Amino acid sequence: MYRKSRNKLALSIAFSLVLSLAFGQESQPSLPENANLQDVINYALENRPSVHQALIDEEVGEEEIASALSGWFPQINATGTYNWNVKIPTSVIGGNVIQLGQKHVSAAVLQADQQILNPGLMQASKAARFIRQQNALNTESSRINTVVEVSKAYYDILTSEEQLNIIKENIERIQRQLNDAKARYETGIVDKTDFKRAQITLSNTLAEQKRVSELLTYKYAFLKELIGLSADQPMNLSFDNAAMESEILLDTTLTVDYNERVEFRQLQTVKQLQHLNTQYNKWTFLPSLSAFYNYAWDFRGNRFPEMFDANFPRSVFGLTLNIPIFQGGKRIHEIRKSKLQETRLDWDVVNLKNQINTQYEMALATYQANLNDWRVARENVALSEDVYNTIKLQYDEGIKTYLDLMTAETDLRTTQISYLNSLFAVLAGKLDVQRALGTVDIDN
To answer: Where are the strands (E) in 338-388, listed by range?
Structure first.
């Protein structure tokens, strides 16, 4: 019965493995239909390879810590030996030469060692907290980069999608102008110049539509890569232009708090670990103390078959004290080196603070400039629409020439594209300011 149940269990496990291999590709979650920016960010934080790698690194760090601290637990070992004394050692006792031992000797030894005082293990115990902190900060940094990069890629797609919509509207408008110019030419009202110009404008606009469409395909592929979505899975995004515009404003009165920057906290953790390294080099002057206990079974005999007929047990308990006295000045030099490295890290902190201040000032200046460009572009769109509509009426009445209409149409398209580019620039600039301040939200 036991063998049958064991075979059933083995078949069940094998069947489960086959199913997992056969349907493993279906285990990857799909992106929600008509996903908005927050859906895309949440998916990336759950599925991006770099985020998973950072989380795995945290688990690896935990195993490394556990491995380093395992030295505090008893270390138990078993050894076995066998010796064949081809020439049995002898000794002279009372003028007589006496053999010491027998031909065949074997022993089985079980020994337990326990560290009591060990500088290396003391350093590992104190460093464990900072190593965990360092690994967690690496994960946080990966999540911050994910939010910023995914958001920028999403905004870039939004800009391109809106640009395509504008181009489609332009094509419809130019097509109507082409038909109108053709009709006027055929009726002899105007010469063929207006008709040819409309054809050229339409061809250029269609070429621009093709270029933006092809680039948009790449941008979707790039976003898939960023969030960890496989290339064969669909991606349908929803865009709320009004919501995007409502998110462009930023509190520019905030000041830099270095502790909010993950890079600053990472450097502080490195400093703490370096300080522990200095302490460890001082601890190397301390002695190390360990206890041991062993129990052995000795077997011996002049003939191999008789060797295990009887055993002669022995057991020892003891302490081992190792006092380092002189190592050629190595420990003193290691302490000095570690202190110099601490001083160097202090200068790294100063340098990082200066870099953070520069990054913030540059990001804030860029954001404010982009925000002003966006406001100007928004006003220009309204003005260019009004100008185009006016000139279109005047052209229909025969007051304005087709060249005037074409110029107005070009100005309208240019201002619309400029508006989209400035919207993307101000949204991306806001992310750069938030990253410089260390206020990127990664907990959604």
So the answer is: none
